[in-house]
Amino acid sequence: MIETVQVTKTYGRVRAVDGVDLAVPEGARYGLLGPNGSGKTTLIRMLLGLVFATSGEISVLGRPVPRRLHEVLPDVGALVEGPAAYGHLSGRANLRLLDAAGRSVRRTRRRRVEEALERVGLAGVDARPVRAYSLGMRQRLGLAAALLRTPRLLILDEPTNGLDPQGIHEIRRLLLEVNAAGTTLLLSSHLLAEVEQVCTWVGIMDRGRLVGQDELAALQAPTGRVVLRSPDADRVVALLDGRVADRDGDRVAVIHPDAAALNAQLVAAGLRVAEIGAERRTLEQVVLAATGAGTDRMERR
Length: 301
Description:
Elements: E1 2-11, E2 14-20, E3 23-24, E4 29-33, H1 40-47, E5 55-60, E6 63-64, H2 69-72, E7 76-79, H3 91-100, H4 109-119, H5 135-147, E8 153-157, H6 165-180, E9 184-189, H7 192-198, E10 201-206, E11 209-215, H8 216-219, E12 222-229, H9 233-239, E13 244-248, E14 251-255, H10 259-268, E15 275-280, H11 283-291
Parallel strand pairs: 4-9, 4-10, 7-8, 8-9
Antiparallel strand pairs: 1-2, 1-3, 1-5, 5-6, 10-11, 12-14, 12-15, 13-14
Helix pairs in contact: 3-4, 4-5
């Protein structure tokens, strides 16, 4: 759905995006991670033709961008940075104007607008102007605009910005539903927990470069260690001498390929096991390994 080859964007002497090779498979939920200032938004703006690349190639929906952008945009929904709207008009009026600017059928416009508002939780909002909306309501309206025409590709830049925990949960559920119906998602965020719960693929940006890209399951594959908790931790360490990689109180990390087999061994030896499982890297560990410590930290929220 999206492919870039050595895409670079410079502003004077600053390389905002530096030689990025992005690949978003059809049907994927792709999370683009990175701290603020890492180049995520600039890359997304280039995908949508809002800014032009200094060098490199961009393909969206199998067509070169920006040369054939007019063929691409009707099938793409997008929410980039703060969603724009006419402040003196209601959310419904804004969506109707947006719909009228496209190639949609007029007689079904009202239904499309109401369905989009319903999906993002704004159906019950009265005719108040958008300037009276909260930040979270504006974000929901921007998402409704992105979903208005049932896009094949949905590109979202920080879609949960300004939402409370309930709102974040609702948007997460909506994105999963949209993807299940056939829409590919590209989600830019610096919230690791949200990407971990929504995405199937992850790309990690740091200082303008794409420093990692893979399926989330592959990035979080077992490490070859088993982590267990036991009130008999001292005896566990003595029994598994030479295979213990780490010990912290009742928590023991053991170099072992099979948690079930290790559990059976410990139980057979009369040792109590409170908790056991294969060790997997968290997304936070994956990101920190790829980017190192920075001044603008990722959020675990």
